[in-house]
């Protein structure tokens, strides 16, 4: 399944959904990646300050990948960008 994500909150919600689909708790995910449960909670809330390396560990633990693509310029409205 592919999902476009443009904000930290959207990414956090997607990660939370993926974790729930796997049937694991925040604590279990945190243990797998060697972090604290509050780190997972922070990521899922879309909080600022998450290290890229931590995010990549979370994605790997959930069997997710990041795909980067160019944004289309169909709209000039700044609200459509974010």
Structure, briefly:
The chain is mainly alpha-helical and 82 residues long. Helices cover 56% and strands 0% of the residues. This is HTH cro/C1-type domain-containing protein.
List the SSEs and their pairings.
Layout: H1 8-22, H2 26-33, H3 37-45, H4 52-61, H5 78-81
Domain HTH cro/C1-type: 15-69
GO molecular function: DNA binding
Protein name: HTH cro/C1-type domain-containing protein
Structure description:
It comes from Sphingopyxis macrogoltabida. GO terms for molecular function: DNA binding. By secondary structure, the chain is mainly alpha-helical. It has one domain: lambda repressor-like DNA-binding domains (434 Repressor (Amino-terminal Domain)), CATH 1.10.260. The chain has five helices and no strands. Helix 1 crosses helix 3 and helix 2 packs across helix 3. It is elongated, with a radius of gyration of 14 Å. It starts with 7 loop residues before the first helix and ends with a helix. The mean pLDDT is 91.
């Amino acid at each position: 399944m592919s999902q476009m994500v443009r904000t930290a909150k959207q990414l956090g919600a997607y990660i939370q959904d993926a974790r729930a689909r796997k049937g694991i708790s925040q604590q279990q995910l945190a243990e797998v990646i060697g972090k604290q449960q509050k780190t997972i909670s922070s990521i899922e809330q879309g909080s600022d300050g998450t290290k890229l390396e931590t995010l990549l560990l979370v994605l790997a633990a959930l069997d997710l990948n990041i795909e980067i693509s160019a944004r289309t310029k169909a709209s000039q409205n700044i609200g459509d960008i974010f």
